[in-house]
Amino acid sequence: MPRNACLCDLIQALDQLASVRGLSPDCRVPLTSFTLFSLQLLQDGKIEKLEELVEKYPCAFPYWVGPFQAFFYIYDPDYAKTFLGRTDPKSKYLYKFLIPCLGNGLVNLEGSKWFQHRCLLTPGFNVNILKSYIKVMAHSVNTMLGKWEKICGTQDTVVEVFEHINLMTLDVLMKCAFSQETNCQISRSSFIDILSLLSLLATMIFMLKQRLNFLHHHDIIFKFSPQGHRLQELVKILHQYTEKVIQDRKKLLKDEKKHGNTQKRKDQDYLDIILSAQAENGNSFSDTDLRSEVNTFILAGHDTMAGSISWLLYHLALNPEHQERCRQEIRGILRDRSSITWDQLGEMSYTTMCIKESLRLAPPIPSISRELSKPITFPDGRSLPAGITVVLSIWGLHHNSAIWENPKKQLPFLQVSLSFPGVCRNCIGQHFAMVKLKVAIALILLHFKVSPDPTRPLVFLHQIVLKPKNGVHLHLKKLP
Ligand code: HEM
What we know:
The protein has helices spanning 3-21, 31-44, 47-56, 77-84, 92-95, 99-102, 111-121, 127-152, 161-178, 188-210, 219-224, 226-258, 270-281, 287-318, 320-334, 342-347, 349-361, 394-398, 430-447, and strands at 60-66, 69-74, 157-160, 367-371, 376-377, 383-384, 389-393, 448-452, 460-462, 466-468, 473-478. With 480 residues, it is an alpha+beta fold. A hairpin with a 5-residue loop joins strand 5 (376-377) and strand 6.
């Protein structure tokens, strides 16, 4: 990095810090202690450390993430409202680490290009498409339940369910997005392929987080580090995988056209939607854009779904009376137990409340960040200058004891969750996620009673996506 750029960074960082420290008497933290503390907070991902800070500083706190970079964490509802009402770009500092993996997809695009992609891809999540996914989702969940039946028989058995839900989620995603029958939940060979893809995704996310280590901030240093090498290898595998999916589909469509079969597929998948968007928009939506959006779909949809279903099951295990009430509701709606329809999902009001409460207790994406394009003034009159990266801690907001009487109290329902936040950049997959959560929980509760394993409580790791530190261990008992 040129020296004068370094100096500019330093001056800017000091300016920023000065204004941050002057921000609020009750947010003020001694520089030396918060510096060390904050690096730890990011690196070991322990939620309790974040909660300690939220408890101590009820609106916000600043921290260093590198020699020249200060972030500002907020978790007060009024601060969050002001923050979400603006159109600041995503933090370059954080999202640039995603570009080598995802390319430029919805998650990290900005401005008119983001708007163009968002308009083109939104039809991929419309009601008719989602309706057509229900059968696919139910089939994959039933496959997982079949495995659980084999493992448990009639005995009450402790199972690490996260691994199973992870595979089931990938199975659903591959089918809904690309109509890919991977059989990953049962078949040994594709199981291995997909497992390596899974570990690839997990490792990629982990490594991205490691890049927050300030020694890895600069591209050149990171590239030549062992982690950098590994990341490049993994990215290559991911890109080869998605490239093959795309090329296979393009070939299929070409063959269909050649044989005069130009009728639209009955159940269009996400790839069909992107390919027709590409056909309609020619040069403005390139093959690289296509691949980036395919990668984005896999990465944004997979860990969030595996986590949200697992946390929901865990919370219902901790709360047997609410679990039973959901089960009764689902039994009343599904009756013959063999299929689920869109309308039936709409009737699951109690179960939906439990889902929302579980998303509050454990938001799958625990924080989002933006780089201020102009100064921000919060409703209490305190301000931050342009250039600062502000992190909205969704976890902090959902667990802030200044807001909730008892933030850890589980179910019944506060029903206020900001797990899919954003006025301008909300989650494009949120309806997909709710449908999948309902289908999964309905089928699981019809067939199994779940209870916690007191010897192995769930420990969360606060990464880009919330993760279980040691899996999710639950007692499963097959219902008659
Ligand atoms: C419970 C599950 C999910 C949660 C809690 C969740 C949460 C979020 C959040 C918080 C954001 C905003 C990120 C930011 O502004 O920095 C986001 C964006 C996004 N999500 Fe989700 N998500 C979930 C499921 C999904 C699924 C299933 C998909 C796709 C299949 C998906 C695709 C995306 C995409 C593409 C974006 C970027 C949207 C844009 O900027 O236009 N998400 N999600």
